[in-house]
């Protein structure tokens, strides 16, 4: 796969550009201490992961802030502890506070020299607007769960991406999807016939963290441990 052959990069945001695990754990950890749970951040994220995926599947048109709050309540049920409305709301409203990965802004600025950039994200518009301030680039298109009425791995984002490419006048074969989550992104990207790059942010840690283990077939064409490694390889390919 030659990265010089592509003109558009579509990105997952949370887990790829924004460190959602740190953001979620920043709320789950103090709640756990308050209710008397002695669990690590990783254990809390694992307990949370399937609950968010289930809520997103059951409530496809809900804003992500609502999905987060309900997933937190269900995580409390899973762990046998109550989650107050204050705590649920705190997680739901926390998206704009989640940090970007340290390399995201630099890598995106480098990639923007040679590619058009598109966001394909499980988020609501208001939440992404806060995150976008941390990323430092202007995206050609922003496709959110609020826009398409569903959450990945449902196909809606990728169908909307096809429409965006037509509007941009770019052939589908000139696009690469870039993402961390095998479950949310690489499974549906494969089904949709897209080439993809895995940004393996958890390469130095075992397990799946806040992302469910993929239960369907997936593939990717290239793998990098972080975004800046990918950006430098892409820049070199473009010459």
Automatic annotation (TrEMBL):
It comes from the Bacteria. Keywords: Hydrolase. GO terms for molecular function: hydrolase activity, acting on acid halide bonds, in C-halide compounds. The keyword Hydrolase applies. The keyword NAD does not apply. PANTHER family: ACID DEHALOGENASE, PUTATIVE (AFU_ORTHOLOGUE AFUA_6G14460)-RELATED, HYDROLASE, HALOACID DELAHOGENASE-RELATED. This is 2-haloalkanoic acid dehalogenase, type II. The lineage of its organism: Bacteria, Bacillati, Actinomycetota, Actinomycetes, Pseudonocardiales.
């Amino acid at each position: 796969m030659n990265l010089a052959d592509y003109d558009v990069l579509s990105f997952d945001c949370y887990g790829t550009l924004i460190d959602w695990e740190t953001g979620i754990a920043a709320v789950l950890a103090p709640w756990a201490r308050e209710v008397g749970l002695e669990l690590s951040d990783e254990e809390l994220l694992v307990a949370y992961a399937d609950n968010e995926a289930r809520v997103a599947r059951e409530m496809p048109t809900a804003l992500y802030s609502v999905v987060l709050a309900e997933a937190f309540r269900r995580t409390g049920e899973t762990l046998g502890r109550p989650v107050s409305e204050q705590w649920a709301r705190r997680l739901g409203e926390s998206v704009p506070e989640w940090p970007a990965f340290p390399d995201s802004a630099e890598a995106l600025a480098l990639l923007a020299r040679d590619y058009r950039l598109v966001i394909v994200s499980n988020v609501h518009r208001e939440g992404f607007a806060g995150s976008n301030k941390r990323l430092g680039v202007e995206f050609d298109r922003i496709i959110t769960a609020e826009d398409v009425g569903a959450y990945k791995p449902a196909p809606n984002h990728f169908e909307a991406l096809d429409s965006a490419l037509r509007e941009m006048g770019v052939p589908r074969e000139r696009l690469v999807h870039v993402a961390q989550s095998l479950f949310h992104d690489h499974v549906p990207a494969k089904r949709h016939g897209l080439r993809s790059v895995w940004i393996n942010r958890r390469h130095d840690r075992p397990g799946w963290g806040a992302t469910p283990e993929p239960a369907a077939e997936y593939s990717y064409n290239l793998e990098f441990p972080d975004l800046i490694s990918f950006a430098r390889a892409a820049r070199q390919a473009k010459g």
